[in-house]
Amino acid sequence: MPELPEVETIVTALRHPIEWPFTIEGGLASQPGVVGRRILRASIYWSRTIATPSFEAFADQIRGLTVQNVSRRGKFVVIDLSPMTLLIHLRMSGDLRVEENIQPRQLHDRLSLDFEDNTRLVFNDTRKFGRVWLVDDPGTVTGKLGPDPFDPNLLPGIFYSRLKMKPTRIKALLLDQNFIAGIGNIYSDEALFRAKIHPLRPAKSLTRDEAGLLLHAIREVLSDGIARNGASIDWVYRGGSFQNHFKVYQRTGQPCDTCGTPIERIVVGQRSTHYCPKCQRLHTSA
After folding, report:
1. Catalytic: which of 91, 271, 278, 281?
2. 194 is catalytic
3. Active site includes 128?
């Protein structure tokens, strides 16, 4: 958390001025975009937030650069500062906000970028797992990531061929960012439910039709998450309402919306996993 839909929501907010439809307090909250803003200075409140270069070099190199664009690669926020690129991974508890620079610093702020127009971009991270990179080539950080779920080149046949090479349990494989980038615990559980695939199935056991159904389910559930500005299941993310539409995630013991069977929870790859034992049967051949 946050996963692809939550990161996409944040990226959209940074790219364009918007009104956040959901806040912790309720109501609307203004969020200015950052594209076109020139960086006056960087303030680093916890040096280990900066993965590369050194925090001293970071502050020196980023000064005077202008935000050209904001995009996403997997779960990374990608800020184009041509000729350099700023990459931010929010990990478990990271968040980004844009505000006037007269606002008081918050407790868990780790980094702020002050712009020349008296606004700033702030990286807040309660658990200190998030990291920031300033690089000439973003591929040095993101080069090993798998394809984006929405990559038009990721055709069902290609997805099936990649699955056939993997004996890994399908739930664990969907969490592997080197296999496919951007999916986490929430959306893997929800996609597997929609595709009616048990999370313990070896990936290579899926048929061509099942692989196609799974790829469609992944794209569908991520699109639904994006449309609802992601899921807010933890106070560290101020995002959206997709949590109100979960079919299995964190619904242990509750009846399946499809068949009424209680949702079960198991652990796959050290991650809590939720599924319907009737809708997602584990075939004996798997």
Report:
1. 271
2. no
3. no
Res 4: pLDDT: 96
Helix (H, G, I), strand (E, B) or coil at 189: helix
Question: Quick one: tokens of 259?
Answer: 């068949």
Choose the catalytic residue: 3, 6, 8, 190: 3
3 is catalytic: yes
Q: Is 264 a catalytic residue?
A: no
Q: What confidence tens digit (pLDDT) does each residue in 193-228 have?
A: 999 999 999 999 999 999 999 999 999 999 999 999
Extract the tokens encoding 127.
């658990």
**Domains of the chain listed by start with CATH number:** 34-142 (3.20.190.10), 156-275 (1.10.8.50)
* pLDDT computed for residue 16 by the predictor: 78
Long-range contacts of 24-27 (CB under 8 A, 24+ apart): 24/235, 24/238
Q: Which of 42, 38, 46 is nearest to 58 (CA)?
A: 42
